């Protein structure tokens, strides 16, 4: 008799159960995403640790995003007149300070892009103006703080600001200019934008007509890469052609980055990274996956968070999650996936990845750890000491007429000695 | 009572021989002792332009200690008791509206590489840096407003790179054509705000008047002389010299033929406190006999001693006057800490941040009152330790 239960009751219980179980899983995914990001704020260029006893993680991360073109928009909309803008509430852009905080962004690389059409004209002066705008912006708001090192990112309690030059046309074929940008705080340079420089090839064809016969990196282009290694400036290969990427990976002794590119195998757009390169990036760099809808979906009409997450899954499958970061390209790209319309939406991406089974370690890597590791390696590759050594090498080179005084120095410095 | 007249005569001769001789010797010695104590700060040298012309800035091909083809090399600077040198990062006027900015960056880079490459040299960016340095302190001066391509942002970035004066024009007008246009006035104000010395050498009379009118900080003439002594357009007329006195301006003296007369004249018109030295070695083509290169500065000091200048006046000319002006200009900066990247290995702060604030507590308080709360907080957190150490 006890075997007979009220079937209606059972059914009712089942329904209830089936209702509540998924509901509590969804809620906990979002919560998990937020807790993770409070702990590990995104670096779209920046990262920061702080101690916090949250339910899931012991470490706190700051989300770091590696590419944002707000500063270009400020030039276009306001001619860099920051006094006319309230960056906390700015409406006309994907980015404002409130949204960055809502998106748990802890560090941001600000791109100081100047138009390709300025190549061989006033690109240098324009770049200085954009760098100046970033500095004024970061000095003007309590929420922001300019930093130039991995440690600076770790230590900052605010949204850390870093500077990235986007396009070799900004240096006007001058290594001295590159060095001065470094002195001003620039910490990465994208070798090309959508135009060839006299020394490097872009992945974009037909947009501009500069130096059409240049392929990969010329001899001078190789010197640029070596000089960036010596200085400790991150080499960014987004926007560059396949041959440029191969050449740079060949020459660079330090890890490289793609500040805003996605997976070619998922969408075969020239801005994306093919599988063989992804494999070469293992232990030698990071790809900061970008949200530009055009490069994610290859013309598919519906582009959403899932489309983006497919890129993450693919790269993890091919090369592991340790070489993945995030480079949103907000205020640079025109269209974004549904659900990721502006910089406050990053948690939705993390939520989706959690749902797809990514674990916390992997996600902390994506959010900040991977980038920090790469940045530190690039810094360690040339510490202040080795820079000083380099100058000592120059002195030795100058004092001895022959180069023999240099031969006893470390290998790479000998090369630098010759190039001066 | 009777002395040997021959002996007396002999003594007299001997005496008359030795007295002038020992006076001369002591002038030279006095000059050298003075300069050992108060090494010269020179306001203008164009070696870096010569390095570009002769060696395309390839420092590995040059030994700056022994370089023969220029007025300047390190050995001569030391022989001349030069303690600090402003290196001009001049680029040709013909680059205006073309690639002047990039060329200027290349010259700044050359100065930095040069100063990093030799133990005898050390890049500094403050008056305190000059005072503290045990080497030849290097500073950077932009020569000609055409270098900023009418961009205040570019001016600010030069400041961040370590540039501490800008000559408003070289031998070409900038888009600030007569005197100073409205934008030119903004340039002067921005230089005040940043704490960059305004250099009026090469500028026209009306530009000088306009700048003196607007600038709240002392100004300099990094390499000019007295118009009344030699009426060359590069020189400073008496009325300006007098205005300089009331405005506490510093004029560096650049010499031509009767060079020492310039010193005397300026001292007479306006006093010695506004005088310094700006040789223009490796910039100008010809120099007075006896002053052919940077090792000869002691001869100038010797001559001034002979003309009755006293040690205080000469120490002023050698360095104190400039340091006073530089500190006054620095003291007017109250706002905006800028990040400055530098290859200086002594900077251990992760930001390579150099703070240009007065070392006196009362000036700091003034700054804090005037600054926004954000900047005030930053000032306190970044500066307070330094202030404590001062006390």
UniProtKB/TrEMBL annotation, chain A:
Q: Say if the entry is tagged with keyword Metal-binding.
A: yes
| Full protein name | Dipeptidase
- Where located? Membrane
For whether the record's keyword set contains Metal-binding, the answer is: yes
- This chain's source organism reads Malurus cyaneus samueli
A family per Pfam:
Peptidase_M19
Q: What cofactors are annotated for this protein?
A: Zn(2+)
The entry's keywords: Dipeptidase, Disulfide bond, Glycoprotein, GPI-anchor, Hydrolase, Lipoprotein, Membrane, Metal-binding, Metalloprotease, Protease, Signal, Zinc
In terms of PROSITE patterns, this protein maps to: RENAL_DIPEPTIDASE_1, RENAL_DIPEPTIDASE_2
Provide GO CC annotations from the record. side of membrane
Molecular-function GO terms, alphabetical: metal ion binding; metallodipeptidase activity
Q: What class of enzyme is it?
A: hydrolase
Q: Which family does it belong to?
A: Belongs to the metallo-dependent hydrolases superfamily. Peptidase M19 family.
Give the GO terms filed under biological process for this record.
proteolysis
Q: What is its EC number?
A: 3.4.13.19
Catalytic activity annotation:
an L-aminoacyl-L-amino acid + H2O = 2 an L-alpha-amino acid
Q: Report the leader peptide range.
A: 1-22
Self-association state and partner proteins as the record states: Homodimer; disulfide-linked.
Organism domain of life = Eukaryota
TrEMBL record, chain B:
Gene3D superfamilies noted in UniProt: Metal-dependent hydrolases
A single BP term in Gene Ontology:
proteolysis
| Predominant localisation class | membrane
As its record notes, the protein acts as a catalyst of: an L-aminoacyl-L-amino acid + H2O = 2 an L-alpha-amino acid
Which residues belong to the signal peptide in this entry? Answer: 1-20
State its Enzyme Commission number(s): 3.4.13.19
GO function terms (MF aspect): metal ion binding; metallodipeptidase activity
Output the Gene Ontology cellular-component terms. side of membrane
**How the protein sits in the membrane?**
Lipid-anchor; GPI-anchor
**Localization, UniProt:** Membrane
Transmembrane ranges?
A: none
Per its UniProt record, the required cofactor names are:
Zn(2+)
Q: Which SUPFAM superfamilies match?
A: Metallo-dependent hydrolases
> What are the protein's UniProt keywords?
Dipeptidase, Disulfide bond, Glycoprotein, GPI-anchor, Hydrolase, Lipoprotein, Membrane, Metal-binding, Metalloprotease, Protease, Signal, Zinc
Q: Top-level EC class, please?
A: hydrolase
Give the family per the record.
Answer: Belongs to the metallo-dependent hydrolases superfamily. Peptidase M19 family.
**Quaternary context:** Homodimer; disulfide-linked.
Q: Which protein is depicted?
A: Dipeptidase
């Amino acid at each position: 008799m006890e075997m007979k239960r009220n079937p209606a009751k059972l059914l009712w219980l089942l329904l209830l159960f089936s209702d509540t179980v998924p509901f509590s899983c969804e809620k906990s995914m979002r919560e998990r995403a937020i807790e993770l990001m409070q702990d590990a704020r995104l670096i779209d260029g920046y990262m920061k640790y702080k101690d916090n006893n949250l339910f899931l993680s012991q470490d706190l991360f700051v989300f770091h995003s590696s590419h944002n073109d707000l500063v270009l928009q400020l030039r276009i909309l306001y001619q860099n007149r920051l006094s006319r803008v309230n960056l906390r509430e700015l409406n006309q852009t994907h980015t404002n300070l409130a949204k960055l905080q809502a998106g748990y962004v802890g560090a941001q690389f600000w791109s100081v892009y100047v138009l390709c059409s300025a190549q061989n004209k006033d690109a240098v002066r324009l770049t200085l103006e954009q760098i100046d705008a970033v500095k004024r912006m970061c000095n003007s708001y309590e929420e922001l703080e300019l930093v130039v090192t991995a440690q600076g990112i770790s230590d900052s309690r605010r949204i850390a600001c870093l500077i990235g030059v986007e396009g070799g046309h900004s240096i006007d074929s001058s290594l001295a200019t590159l060095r001065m940008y470094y002195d001003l705080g620039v910490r990465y340079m994208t070798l090309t934008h959508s135009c060839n420089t006299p020394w490097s090839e872009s992945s974009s064809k037909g947009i501009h007509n500069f130096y059409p016969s240049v392929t990969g990196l010329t001899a001078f282009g190789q010197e640029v890469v070596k000089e960036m290694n010596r200085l400790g400036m991150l080499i960014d290969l987004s926007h560059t052609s396949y041959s440029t990427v191969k050449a740079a990976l060949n020459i660079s002794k330090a890890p490289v980055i793609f500040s805003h590119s996605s997976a070619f195998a998922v969408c075969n757009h020239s801005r994306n990274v093919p599988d063989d390169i992804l494999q070469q990036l293992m232990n030698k760099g990071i790809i900061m996956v970008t949200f530009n809808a055009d490069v994610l979906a290859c013309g598919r009409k519906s582009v959403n968070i899932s489309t983006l997450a497919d890129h993450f899954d693919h790269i993890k499958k091919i090369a592991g999650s340790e070489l993945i970061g995030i480079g949103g390209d907000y205020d640079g790209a025109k269209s974004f996936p549904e659900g990721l319309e502006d910089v406050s939406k990053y948690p939705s991406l993390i939520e989706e990845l959690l749902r797809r089974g990514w674990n916390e370690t992997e996600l902390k890597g994506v959010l900040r750890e991977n980038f920090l590791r790469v940045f530190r390696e690039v810094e360690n590759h040339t510490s202040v000491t080795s820079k000083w050594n380099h100058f000592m090498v120059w002195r030795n080179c100058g004092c001895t007429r022959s180069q023999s005084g240099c031969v006893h120095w470390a290998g790479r410095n000998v090369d630098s000695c010759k190039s001066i």
